[in-house]
Amino acid sequence: MKKYNDIDVLILVGGLGTRLKSISKSVPKPLVKINDRPFLSILLKHITSFGFKRIILCTGYKSNAFNKFLKKEKFECEILISKEREPLGTGGAIKNAEKLLRSKSFLVINGDSFCDINLEKFCLCFKTKKLFAQIAIFPSKKTKDFATIQLDKDNYIVNYQEKINLHEKRTSLISTGVYQFSSRIMKFIEADKYSSLEFDILPNIMKHFEKNFYGFVTEGKFIDIGTPESYEKSKTYLM
Prior knowledge:
Helices cover about 25% and strands about 25% of the residues. It has 7 helices and 13 strands. Helix 4 packs across helix 6.
């Protein structure tokens, strides 16, 4: 991973986690324990196993809980906190972290899901194809709770459909919440304004970079812990 360890990684951990409140109580969802380990610890261990040296936590709700977490847990990388003064959404959270970014491209990873993806191959694909953006995609029969994606014959993304559009025909390829973007994406996100990566930014990218927005298909493990049902499954999945 030496060629790619200078790539920054943003982890989105600022959400309210309302669907998991019955379990998480007052704890931010990424810090909920899976088999006695905070989920974020499991996620960070996976990321750092590929040699990434600089990680930025995009926080909002109960940001101080992440500061306390980092005082207790030690990782072989630099971990920075980007804090929102008010909720900015997933797009706004990325823009809010811009001042901390150093790399020409960076990863964005949802802090409430785990994808057992080879991040070295993911970054190599981005560099080799000279992409503007790419998403890690997982083949799944269960598409109800996820964004679905349609690819052309060369795996470039031709349609991105969020989970809210349930009346439309859906594909069997879902977003894992693992992305890589050129730092130029910041030009498409307004500062200090609420915006959604999924609903606002990605559709805009598709308009401008139709043949530069790639779907990286992975068949490694994937699970999100966003609901009580998936949380219970994750105990076995991530054992």
